Amino acid sequence: MVLEKSRSIRYLADMNFWQLLPRPFAVLAPMEDVTDWVYRKLVCDHGEPDVLMTEFTSAAILCSNQPQRAMERLMVYEGEFARRPLVAQIWGADPTQMEKAAKLCSQLGFAGIDINMGCPVKKISKKGACSALIRFPSLAGELIQAVKQGSQGKPVSVKTRIGWAQPETEVWCGHLLGQNLAALTVHGRTVAQKSEGKADWVEIGKVTALRNQISPSTLVIGNGDVTRAGAEGLRRLSGVDGLMVGRGVFSDLGIFRQDGYHCYTDWPESVKLSLLERHVTDHRNAWQGKKDYEKLKKFFKNYTAGFEGALELRQRLMDTHDHAGSLAVLNQWRGARRL
Ligand SMILES: Cc1cc2nc3c(=O)[nH]c(=O)nc-3n(C[C@H](O)[C@H](O)[C@H](O)COP(=O)(O)O)c2cc1C
Q: N or C: which end of the chain has fewer CB within 10 A?
């Protein structure tokens, strides 16, 4: 993403790293079943965002006597903490659990703690957590205070949406800006919209204006439909300090590069297939059967687009049942095409 800025800062642990970032800065969005350490490493090796976030992680499970599933979401690769600030994203509705989860994440070495107040999935919002907090602002405030208490001085941020059924940006985000957060990420859609329609960057701009009045030290991060070509325009429109990229990285793996490197869609077939091979192999080696192979399939379309026969290859890959199966399909395809 070619944004005008200097990248001269180095990340130092135990500081409010948000304040050290260049402006504007770029963040890789937290994405469940996507941004595990395998994918974060793949992304960083092709263009480093300034900040990364883990998948959202349940505070209740972290605090239970079987925390393994949640701990898997907090796994990092060797050297990751020294590379770029990595923020643990947690969710929950119980202040005591959130405080304990924040303490654990801080002790594990994460650079900051982010609270998910935007996930629209019903089975989660029914528990009064994530996006449901838009309807329970006083609980949201309690959770933020609890996480601050547990975070041992690490910066605390929130990621949310512009409203529940309709935009209620000023009231909701105004409330959050009253909590003295290090950063606030605003996804420019309501909960009801889920991922549909276009993200509303005019609403995001309202948050930046409010921030200037209520909490000048809180950084505002805009999120929703950011692409390489559109990034600078959205930043200018909204005045945000940073941009968060989610799905935009799927079709443009080099989106965080600073050198105007050409878009991933233009990369040759052989490069895309090497990346696919790396992703499948790393996923197999990292998780050794602990993660469902089927979830890896959501990535296949990222690598099988923009070359002749791509759809046919994708179909063959989608019919596989394990890592060995997809690697065999890939080998056979490359052999036939002499790649
Ligand atoms: C597969 C997937 C998983 C997601 N998981 C999370 C999550 O764990 N935490 C979170 O705050 N948002 C999550 N999101 C929302 C994204 O972080 C982001 O807000 C949303 O995709 C809009 O940004 P985009 O248009 O750049 O993709 C997820 C989105 C996708 C597509």
A: C
